[in-house]
């Protein structure tokens, strides 16, 4: 880096104004995170929740606005460590929007559960900083730091139901296994440095393309895959998911299952597609097949809705991984679309589930959902839409998401993986259907109180609902965007010929 | 509005009017009567719109008509492409004809969650029409899957004792089978760059699709499985009796009347249309399955103590005729198959309505619970007789024409198919007339049946159109066949080629 700076003159030693614009969302989110922490002891305890929540929400929205400025100045920043392109803007918007929705849906939850917490909102904002940075970092060490920022916030957030052992267990489990996984990632980074002499993704890519790929590079990518595979809950690194999701607070689970996952997938996209280690295909193939199958089969027998959705998130990670095995530009755009629509539907589902859960998260088993279609028809209808989207029924985002992923896989001649995928989505329909059956086709046997949702929660659910349906009926705009940015992301040499009749040799 | 713009919009209008009505219904306050009237109004409007189709249909023209083709999603290349030919024309009209009757028959029998019921019914109607009108494979799959949810909910919420089991079974069977169709559609897209039915068909026919010969058999099976479960063809039929017995009357009517036809329509349109050679090669075992369906369905129907189950198994038998006709690859066979589809929709729809009327009065479908009903319910018995005879295939009623044509087609293909198929007609008169005798003739065996009321006004309005349609279709089948025949002939042209090639190989 020093040599680079010398050749470009002394002025490059210091960051330029444009450099700051390129991480403006991160800066703003951090500032608001700090404001929230300072504010917490200052404001009155009664009003505390509301004020802090509003400040945090405002921070997230400001961060969202800042991405617009960021998008206006694409390019590299901070000595080639951060790259602003369509890809990173997409994930910035996604992650920060998720944070905003989670903040909205947390407000009621925190009140109902009587959790006093300024630092809760601050942690969400800080975690979002890490996740946003993950998507724009092109330097493995910076990616690692960003990953740690996001992970540490998630560990703490998972333990926020302080009075429940399950929550503490969840937090501790997540922390222990998570740090283990990030260590793997770091180890992979070190090995990659050993193999190519660089930690910059672009330079690594060039070094690997120049000659025969050293074995060490494969090992390095495999180690990084372990670390990221843990974050996205892909099999065989998925064991932690059900326990952690069961114990953690509802809105936090919504957050954990979407934002860090999206960010980890962003990193994975950069590593897999930009570094382009094609021999890794079988690893991804197996991880995808196992995640889908284990996730869906595991979910079939769950009785706790949060656990059920945890297994479902494993399965969805599997569907998403299919895209990674497909040809680069199609696969990347399919994966991006998938993360977005998965975020919308899963956040919505968790928002409704944590509202139903009530004080102490008492009502989270399937039996508690009996007859909800009658007692609170609106919320049940919303949950229905989200579940249908998770199944992949037409007119919802989940349908197009699955469709693009499978379509990309078929185009890459991954017929068997596609067949496993479509079969899994058939099986998967069963357990989502069980929730619907409980809500609509059974009469309630016990009293499950459902309060009126607050305005904030209503807005959060409505936003998720609109996004789910929008992506399901008018996917064109989003898909265009993901395709363009995927095109930008993948080095030209790797892009497939534009002809639709590519008769590529059969892979697996 | 000029007739040209109307003709490009009419399919959109027919397809989405029920959905729009359903969405409006969400906003209407929960006053049951208003909701019923509004739903009926919407379904009648849709029916009136759909009458535009046969009235302005150019019978001589074999191409798709009333086409509309707009880009929906740019990449992947998905079009909003709709259009109908003689095959889909009548299925659309059948759907719009049966839906108002379903609403009428549910007028009194649904009194809880009325709003949800009619919303689901209207959404279902849109999805059903969409399946028949879409010419883009993606759009087709979209509507295909969209029929699942409202139907499963109708069964699961408004059904009888084992409704949840039946709903889940119905959903899972269809869902798992249809994902194979999705895989096949995706393969076709990957290798042709299009979802458009016409484009894909032409590309396959001209041999322009790479790697097609190796994959064709699997693609054929992918589509076939999805459709065979829906039809349902013999080993995949087990969901049907459960679904029918548990479904509310309107659900059964649409299930038997239209949903099953989605399967046979798919076989005709996609399996025959896209893969003529594979269809030819696979025809023998498919014909055998169809014959097993005809005979097995009839025999099982004969011993059913439950009236609704009996009708359900009779559907298995009748749909066997349709598949037999389709895979005979003869003009008579295909015409007959189409006609049986329509006739079965009318007569079995009617039978389910009549069974529902009894259930509403006695809350049972057991045949032994009845007997001698002709005395207390003369009007009901009369209507029942017309529909039963139509279903059994009495000349001058609609069942006869179709079955006759199918059998003559099957004979042309191979005599033994025709002979075995013809026994199905005998079986069907046995089980239907025997059931009729046990329910209506003799003395009233259970005193409670003496006080049963005859058909009410709404019930008459629902049942009589079916009986009238059965009669008209039987007397003047040419009205229907005139539009069906050109489409069938054009569907058969690739087979003439395939057949001549096969004959050439033999000699």
The helix count of chain B comes to 19
Written as H for each helix and E for each strand, in order along the chain, the element string of chain B is HHEEHHHHHHHHHHHHHHHHH
Helical amount of chain B: over 70%
Question: What would the average pLDDT of chain B be, to the nearest integer?
Answer: 86
Classify the beta-strand content of chain A into a percent band. under 5%
Total number of β-strand segments of chain B?
Answer: 2
Structural class of chain B: mainly alpha
Mean pLDDT of chain A: 85
The main sheet of chain B comes to: 2 strands, antiparallel
Largest interface (CB < 8 Å): A-B, 37 and 39 residues
**Sheet with the most strands: spatial strand order of chain A:** 1-2
Gyration radius of chain B, to the nearest Å?
Answer: 22 Å
- What sequence of helices (H) and strands (E) makes up the elements of chain A? HHHHEEHHHHHHHHHHHHHHHHHH
User: What about the largest sheet of chain A?
Assistant: 2 strands, antiparallel
Rg over C-alpha atoms of chain A, rounded to the nearest angstrom: 22 Å
The backbone outline of chain B, from C-alpha atoms, is: globular
> What is the share of helical residues of chain A?
over 70%
Description:
The complex is a heterodimer of chains A (508) and B (507). Chain A has 508 residues and is mostly helical. Chain A has one domain. Helices cover 75% and strands 1% of the residues of chain A. Chain A contains 22 helices and 2 strands. Chain A has a two-stranded antiparallel ribbon with strand order 1-2. In chain A, helix 16 runs antiparallel to helix 18. Chain A starts with a helix and ends in a 19-residue tail after the last helix. The C terminus of chain A is likely disordered. With 507 residues, chain B is mainly α. Chain B has one domain. A two-stranded antiparallel sheet of chain B has the order 1-2. In chain B, helix 15 packs parallel to helix 18. Chain B is globular. Chain B starts with a helix and ends with a helix. The C terminus of chain B is likely disordered. At the A-B interface, helix 19, helix 20 and helix 22 of A face helix 5, helix 6 and helix 7 of B.
